[in-house]
Amino acid sequence: MIVTIKCGRVLMSLIKCENVTLSYEKNIVMQDLSFSLEKGEYLCIVGENGSGKSTLVKAILGLIPVTEGKIEFSDGLVRKKIAYLPQQNSGMKNFPASVREVVMSGFLSEKKFFSFYTSEERRKAEDIMKKLGIYSEASRSFCELSGGQQQRVLLARALTKDMSLLLIDEPTAGLDPIVTSEFYEIIKSINSEGVAVVMITHDIPAAIRYASCILHLHNRPLFFGSTSDYLKTETGRRYSGV
Length: 242
Ligand code: ADP
Description:
By secondary structure, this protein is α/β, with parallel strands linked by helices. It has a domain at 96-161. 32% of the residues lie in helices and 28% in strands. The chain has helices at 53-60, 90-93, 99-104, 119-131, 147-159, 177-192, 204-210, 227-230, 234-240; strands at 3-6, 9-24, 27-38, 42-46, 68-73, 82-85, 165-169, 196-200, 213-217, 221-226. It has a six-stranded mixed beta sheet with strand order 6-7-8-4-9-10, with helices on both faces. Strands 1, 2, 3 and 5 form a four-stranded antiparallel beta sheet that branches. The relative contact order is 0.18. The structure holds adenosine-5'-diphosphate. Adenosine-5'-diphosphate is lined by residues 24, 29, 47, 49-55.
């Protein structure tokens, strides 16, 4: 069990990453990375293109091995309980299914064999669609929706999981400012219900506004800690423009 003592409180880390090196073949893309994520926290991973953010996400999801060091899960977190919202790719935009079908497909990963959806799953999908403001679109074709609505549908699909961590990769790329801020508010409300959030983003002002902690990467950690401490550092001030 991983236990951290912070401000006199004993916390159990959901994820603890210790002295991690990540590489593709012999090319090292991340070195000496240590950080932890506590229950209910909101971590933003920031850094320039090529700084290793997506590679770290792949390692957390177990899609690539860790070259050195270790990534441990605790406090009931197992990889199956990570809800993952990947970057939207253009192929997904033309997905030929209704909104309801796309959301319900989130349950398929939990099923060993093809079987019909249960009434509990249907009810859960409806509750999530209502919460994300897309229930009125349930019968519409996914490909007719705006980029912002499509992103909500994909988030709804990710939320069908029984999860304790929501991992999101660049969720607002290509969205306009109003839709972007609505999307951030949705993520914040999910976090307020106790779900830990890890979000990769280039939007440092939004990271500062919403995240409780920041991990700034440049093929090694430039900073890991609370958002308020980030703003006291040279890196934080330079990138946030504060
Ligand atoms: P970021 O998400 O911060 O933009 P990435 O994690 O995608 O960065 O990439 C980090 C580095 O790893 C880059 O130099 C990239 O070219 C390299 N890289 C990413 N994916 C692969 C891959 N599948 N094979 C080899 N190199 C890769």
